[in-house]
Amino acid sequence: MSAPSPFAAIDIHRDPTSALAIWRDLEPQAAATFYQTRGFVLPWYETLGRDLGYAPLIVTARDAAGEPAALLALAEKRVGPFRAAFFAGGKDSNANLPLVRKGLTPDAADFEHLLRAAGRRAGVDLFVFLNQPRAFDGRDNPLTLLPSQDSPSRGHLASLAPDGEALLTQRLSKDSRKKYRKKEARLTETAPLAVVSSEDATTIPRLLDAFFEQKLARFEDRNIVSTFERPSARAFIEAAVAAGAAKLYGLEWRDRIIAVYGGGGYGSRFSAMFNSFAADEAIAKSSPGDLLLFALMKRLGAEGYRQFDLGVGEARYKNAVCDSNETLADTFLAVSTKGRLARAAFVAALKTKATIKRNPRLMALMSRARATAR
User: Fold this and answer.
1) Phi/psi at 61 (nearest 5 deg)?
2) Beta bridge partners of 249
3) Residue 201, SS3 per DSSP
4) CB neighbour class for 66 (10 Å; exposed up to 12, middle 13-18, buried from 19)
5) Which tens digit of pLDDT belongs to each residue from 41-77?
6) Phi, psi of 90 (to 5 degrees)
C-alpha cells in the first residue's frame, strides 16, 4: 500500500491575508530564501506585481491531521489566451522554492497532484516555475524533479566567513588585491570612504535616489528596458525595507553615494537583489561597486551569514569572488489543453535564450543590435 499524500487538503488564496496564519507557521522552519518571505512577497504583490498585471495566487496544503504542510507564493497573469501562474517576485526573485514543513519530504508526485488540483480549481492553464535551485539545504528540490530543463543562467554563490579579510585574501589573487588597494587609495586621498545602510532610516531616500539614478543611466546607455523605470519599483523596495526584509547598503564618498547594493537575508544566506555604481569616469575607474562588494562580504560574514547569493547571469565581479555555482531549473506543468500549447512556446523561448547566452558571438550580436536600435 502506498504512503498517504502529505497534502491531504489543498486551498488556494487570492487574498494573501487569508494565508498568513499558515505562512507564519511555515516560514521560520522551511528551507527557503529571502524571496519566499512575507516581507518580500507581500510588498511585491501590492506594488510592482500589481503594476505588472499579476494577481496573488497562494497555494497551501495541510496534512491529514490538519497541520500546515506546504505553501507556494505564486502570482497569476494572463499571457495572451492563457492563464499562467509564476512564483511571486517575477524577475526580482533569483532563487525560487516552495515552503515545506520541516521534516516533511513530499516527492514530485505529491507536488504534481497538488499543482494539478490547485490549477483546476483556480482556472490556471500552466504553471511556470523559473530559476529554482535543483538542490537546496542538502536536498533535491521536488519541483525540479517534475519535467524541467536547466535555466539559461546559473546562480552565483560566494562563501562567507567571520574573518572577511582572510577570506578575501584567499579569494583574490595578490595582483588583484594590490590593484584594488590602489583604487581605494585613489579615492581616499581626497576624502574617506564609508559604508552606510538603511539601518539609518534617514539614509534610505539618499540610497534609493542614488540607485535609481545610477541604474537607469546605465540601462539607458545600453538601451535596456527595465521595470526599474516604473514608480512601483521604488515603492516595492521602500515597502520591503519598511517591512524589515530588505536592506540597502551604499558606499559614501564626499557626501555622495557612489555605489549601492540591495538585498535581504534569510537563515545563513544573504541574497542580492540589485546593485549600481556611479558611471563618472573619475569614480568608475576606481571600481566603487567592487569596493562596496568587498566591504559587504566582510560585514555579512561578521554578522553570521555564510553564503552570499549574487544572483543569476554572468558578470566579471561575480567570477572574482564566487566560489560555487547553483544549478537552476525551469519547470512547466500544463493543467489544460491550452496549457500544453503554452508550455511548448515557453520551453522553446527559454531554450533559444539559453543558446544565445551561452554563445559569446550571439551575445555580442545582440548587444550590437540593441545599440543600433537606439
Assistant:
1) -140, 145
2) 197, 261
3) helix
4) exposed
5) 999 999 999 999 999 999 999 999 999 999 999 999 9
6) 55, -135
